[in-house]
Design brief:
Blueprint lengths: L1 H17 L1 E13 L13 E3 L1 E13 L4 E19 L5 E22 L2 E19 L2 E4 L8 E12 L4 E10 L15 E11 L3
Antiparallel strand pairs: 1-3, 1-10, 2-4, 3-4, 4-5, 5-6, 6-7, 6-8, 8-9, 9-10
Length: 202
């Protein structure tokens, strides 16, 4: 029994020394599935991706020689752009900005020491929602939106140096962002992100 506790203590100790912490940030290219079904007084609505950004912190916990778990805490600026024409032919433009506090938990596998693949869930909490219509911005009522969003992320990264690297990730949302959506068109977040990270530990 003493040997078992001693072995567990050594394993926990080695894990705590091996963990690294860091910061990361980059660009989001986000969209919302079925966003062209929004009613923005257009007869022909087209949905386009919206550029935003992400920034936050992470911790990396090695659990095997080539395998690690990386939880992150990120600000995520998501949304979509809608364009079209009204009945008189005038152009309409609407941008929906939705801000989330996201907690991705990535399971990473190193194919080689410098390059890794990752996959895992992402849990997000809605912070705010804003609408920009034909150049005029206004706060959107979030009462009709789901506060929590769940998605799955797939990505890859490259360690340029032991401390500095680049990462790309695609996150597909599973949750309808509209609460009690009366239509059959689920509105889900989709986001491609690319950015840089810096590790403080070795």
């Amino acid at each position: 029994m003493k040997k078992l506790f001693l072995g567990a203590a050594i394993a926990i100790s080695s894990l705590s020394f091996a963990q690294t912490f860091g910061i990361k940030g980059g660009m989001n290219l986000s969209s919302i599935s079925n966003a062209d079904s929004f009613d923005v007084e257009n007869s022909n609505v087209n949905s386009k991706s919206k550029v935003g950004f992400n920034a936050g912190v992470f911790a990396n916990f090695p659990v095997a020689e080539s395998f690690s778990i990386q939880p992150e805490l990120l600000y995520n600026g998501l949304g979509t752009k809608l364009t079209g024409k009204d009945e008189t032919g005038n152009k309409d433009a609407l941008t929906l900005n939705v801000d989330y506090l996201s907690l991705p938990v990535m399971f990473q596998y190193n194919l080689v020491p410098q390059f890794y693949l990752e996959a895992g869930p992402q849990f997000s909490y809605l912070l705010s929602s804003k609408v920009k219509y034909n150049g005029e911005s206004s706060d959107s009522n979030t009462d009709g939106m789901n506060k929590f969003d769940i998605g799955i992320g797939l990505g890859a990264g490259f360690n340029i140096t032991p401390q500095f690297g680049i990462n790309a990730r695609y996150v597909a949302g599973f949750t309808d962002i509209v609460k009690d959506n009366p239509t059959d068109n689920s509105l889900k977040n989709n986001n491609f992100q690319v950015g840089l990270y810096y590790k403080f530990g070795k």
